């Protein structure tokens, strides 16, 4: 990891940004984190040899950086309800209208749903076009924009249609976070909290930029070892199996990070019930999540049977006739994939958890 200097225009103020390199077998790219990081966009595009870009962004986003090449702004279809194949088609048709070729690029400026959906559109358009992510939410900066997983939802479940398509660069400008609503920040902290149990350690004593850098550094190291979920990358799903079920069960009234936070507490409880960790370690899960101001309870009005059924649709699930589920759980050897956890055990742990409303909006 290195530090680079950014100068904004003639006579502009100089800014420092942290650089994390993601090194894969057939691809390498840099993630830049810091105030003003988006001003690196022209240099990044010049290095990539890009002649034209489509910048997908919501009108609510802060002012877009000048990419330094001809560009078209495409309105982002933001939020989980627009994370669909229909949105992917809309973006691809906009790319056609913008005249993009395989030598051009797409810029995804927005939250996690934007980077996911635009990333998938980039993977499919002309069988693959460069994409640069400018994540504008904490959740997108610490997780969604890095690692190359792109996906959209189906009515039956979350992220069921997708592709692996690595970005060509990621610019995490922390200035974007200054105007985020509190609940949107909390959603990002859900991913930071679960990092404590998958190798990042306790990040609570760090400032926000350092928390982002630590989270990305961990993810980059895991993805470098396992780009396509064949082994170690499973640890990044910690808390996500129940988290995705909560999102779907509440029709996405619960934010992703909120749901993952609850999933993290559940992962600790389940690991304890299975005898994989002791009571102190179980308590650490709840304490970590609570310390960030995140929920530790299940959504009220959602039956346990509904959550179990949604978890059965998880991508790691076996045949329908198999009454077991697979989870990423803590244990004596660290976090690992644990198959064949019987549904009765899962239901019992869920039934013992309290229920309550989603965190209040600002």
TrEMBL record:
UniProt keyword annotations, A-Z: Amino-acid biosynthesis, Aromatic amino acid biosynthesis, Lyase, NAD
Documented EC number(s): 4.2.3.4
Q: Which residues form the 3-dehydroquinate synthase N-terminal domain?
A: 77-185
- 3-dehydroquinate synthase C-terminal domain spans which residues? 207-317
**One Pfam family it belongs to:** DHQS_C
Q: Which SUPFAM superfamilies match?
A: Dehydroquinate synthase-like
A Gene Ontology molecular function term of the record: 3-dehydroquinate synthase activity
Q: What class of enzyme is it?
A: lyase
- Entry's InterPro entries? Dehydroquinate_synthase, DHQS/DOIS_N, DHQS_C
**Names of required cofactors:** NAD(+)
Protein name as catalogued: 3-dehydroquinate synthase family protein
Q: What organism does this protein naturally occur in? A: Streptomyces galilaeus
